[in-house]
Amino acid sequence: MSHQLELRHLKYFLAVADELHFRKAAEKLFISQPGLSRQIKQMEDDLGVVLFERHNRKVELTKAGAYLKAEISRNLKELNHILNHGKLLHHGIDGNLNLGYVGSAIQQLIPNLLLLFKKEHPTIVFDLKEMDNHRQIDGLLSKDIDVGFVRLERIPKNLKSLPVLKENFCLVLPKNHSIDPQNFKSMSQLKHEAFIMFDPSYSPSYYEKVMQIFDDSGFTPIVSHNTIHASSIYRLVENNLGISIVPKSLQMGYNMKVKFIELKNIKHQTILSAVWNKKNRNPSLAPFLKTINQNKGFNLQ
């Protein structure tokens, strides 16, 4: 590689590769379009390859350009992680971890886990984002997050998982509903009720798990509403717009006029797993996974 090729050339190349439009890329980079074109031409000359096929109305990546886009994107992300970690160390912080999670994990499990971890590693900081299962998987593969807390049966082969919590499901009913823990016998008592469900797109595998409960009970539920937030489910339930089924951990953290009946006598349970990328080189990841492994299970609830 020529000594004239600099980091800015790589960033300019990626901007054009993403936009496939020199003017739009130039606007994104806050430089002139002729200036950007010169920088890309210089990069092509230094490498001795053509990166883009230029036509009157469109720009396309060449085979070499497509390969370099994928590899440069991946390696620049690694470089940014390394540089950011160096900045943290300079400021007396030993590292950082980006966590993704489904809503039920934030009620008790993650706060308790972070408290345990902070006892041994007080100078590691966290960034937490609530994300659906599939966004977490995408974030783990791109290394935008370091650990995800998901409810999934299968994950891509580049990822590893550790079951953290196995828990029962709970019925969610309005406070004034005639069914209560004392007179509840089976799900068939509720076959004429409207059900409020987590949206299938939020987690298809979780949705299928819940639907298996109905299959085993011999009826198909009347689904009146789908939503992605537990708070929305509870608000609909307390207003007598339906009933629901949620993981047991979602009993915590809400103050609404609903009641819960734990489904202890059915075979179906839901598993919350920690998931990470096997190729993630964040030095804070290994001690965090060690804490999870030492404390997985109901100790975190």
TrEMBL record:
Name the Gene Ontology molecular function terms of this record: DNA binding; DNA-binding transcription factor activity
Question: Which key words tag this protein in UniProt?
Answer: DNA-binding, Transcription, Transcription regulation
User: Quick check: keyword Transcription regulation in the entry?
Assistant: yes
The keyword Transcription is annotated on this UniProt entry: yes
Q: Look up and give the organism this protein is from.
A: Wocania arenilitoris
HTH lysR-type domain location is: 5-62
Q: Which InterPro entries match?
A: LysR_HTH_N (IPR000847), LysR_subst-bd (IPR005119), WH-like_DNA-bd_sf (IPR036388), WH_DNA-bd_sf (IPR036390)
Q: Name one GO cellular component term.
A: protein-DNA complex
Give the protein name, as stated in the record: LysR family transcriptional regulator
Organism superkingdom: Bacteria
Pfam families in UniProt: HTH_1 (PF00126), LysR_substrate (PF03466)
Q: Which family does it belong to?
A: Belongs to the LysR transcriptional regulatory family.
